[in-house]
Amino acid sequence: MKSDAMVSEEEAREKILETISQLPARLLSTLHALDCFAAQDYLARLPLPVFDNSAMDGYAVIASDCRSGERLRVIGEQPAGLDRQLRVSPGAAIRIFTGAPVPAGADAIIMQEDVTRDGAEIVLNVDVDHGEFVRKRGCDLAEGQKILHKGERIRAATAALLASQGFAEVTIGGEVDMAIISTGDELVKPGEKIKQGQIYESNSVLLQGLAQRCGASVRSVEYCPDDRDSLTESLKRGIQHDVLIINGGVSVGEHDLVQSTLRSLGAKIDIWRVAIKPGKPFLFGRVDNCAVFGLPGNPVSAFITFLQFVQPAILKMMGAINLHLPAAPARLVVDLTNDGDRPHYVRGKLEDGKFTPVGRQESHALFGLSQSNALLRVAVGESLKPGEIVDLQIWDG
Questions:
Q1: Would you place residue 251 in the very low, low, confident or very high pLDDT band (cuts 50, 70, 90)?
Q2: For the segment 263-276, what is each residue's pLDDT rounded down to a tens digit?
Q3: 3-state percent breakdown (helix, strand, coil) of the chain, nearest 5
Q4: Angle formed at CA 376 by CA 356 and CA 182, multiple of 5 degrees
Q5: 177-183 vs 217-224, strand pairing mode
Q6: Which of 18, 93, 145, 161 is disulfide-compatible with 59, CB 3.0–4.6 A?
Q7: Which residues contact 397 (CB under 8 A, 6 or more apart)?
Q8: Model-level pTM?
């Protein structure tokens, strides 16, 4: 592939993912593995529930003994906790509490609200059916059942399920170590005084937030002027990481500086310029074990190219099986037509099942982006009418 040839977004994504390798797995405590990806399948060690237990506070009984108006002797009590090895005999009942093991001989639970206590006896106010309010062993989960697939994200409920099976630790995909370099003489750090012609540097904040949300660890953030020597030193530090993002300096005017500086450090450039709007000046290459992404300096362009190309690469490194943004259908509120020569990612808001573009759709329009939560890809030559059902990519919430 020629490094200066504009490629389709599909070709670019395929090339990147072909090049990216999964990082070595690691072992973490189940709690600290939250939002990471399992590096192996996990099977249930125990059924859930582990034993037959009561779903209510009440009395363990034999259902065939239980008709409204019957009297039963209370012969013991079984709280939640250790099984007291009690047995229910005909004409008898055992006081029981929620979660407690069902005594031998019992096949139903009658709620305490459905009886009248009379000394050592209870009077039944309702009939009782076999199995009523008994949680049977294994009714939720069978021993040996798969509870977590390799590549699946570990959510809070997944972590709880693993803990219920006695897993104190879990093997997960590797941690992605990332560096970000923002380039441009016009950039000033937030908090410092700004002069005419300068702007506050905000893209690194955007990119750090996106990287952290998909699980990467941003270890280094640098600001670099448009100077070859400064860029060279920053790049030398940046390529010590798994992923390096260079923000700015990859448009046509700076093309030779960024590419030639990367090549002087041994980089192989696979992609420069992708047929996507916003975000055409996009670069991807490698220096040894470091994946290098050059993103456009305009914030919306950086945002779109990160989600479409960088995030899938990070997720693959971490061992995820699903590399795509969540999708959802919605009803379009306005007319949209793409008369350009590149697919256009329209930013907008998904609310109550409807999608409305938000703000200006230029690549610099950060405010509109801040009000959006979804993207709509409009293909070249495509026209969409109000009321049409469209497929969205959800990037927030």
A1: low
A2: 999 999 999 999 99
A3: 20, 35, 45
A4: 105
A5: parallel
A6: 93
A7: 373
A8: 0.87
| Cα 323 to Cα 308: distance, rounded to the nearest angstrom | 10
Tokens, residue 13? 């994504």
Q: Give the position of tokens 């971490």.
A: 318
* Other Cβ atoms within 10 Å of 133 Cβ, number: 20
Res. 202 pLDDT band, cuts 50 70 90: confident
Element (H, E) at 219: strand 217-224
Residues 6+ apart with CB under 8 A from 377: 343, 344, 345, 346, 393
The single-letter code of the amino acid at 67 is R
Domain spanning 327-394 has what CATH number?
2.40.340.10
Sign of CA dihedral 119, 124, 130, 136: negative
Would you tell me which CATH number, out of the four given (3.30.70.1350, 3.40.980.10, 3.30.930.10, 3.30.420.10), belongs to the domain 7-24+174-317?
3.40.980.10
Is 18 exposed, middle or buried, given 0-12, 13-18 or 19+ CB atoms closer than 10 A? exposed
Start and end residues for every CATH 3.40.980.10 domain found in the chain: 7-24+174-317
Taking all residues of the chain, what is their mean pLDDT, rounded to a whole number? 93
C-alpha to C-alpha distance for 298 and 250, rounded to whole angstroms? 11
Mean pLDDT in residue range 337-345? 95
Residue in the structure block whose two tokens are 């409807």: 354
Assigned token pair, 203: 């893209």
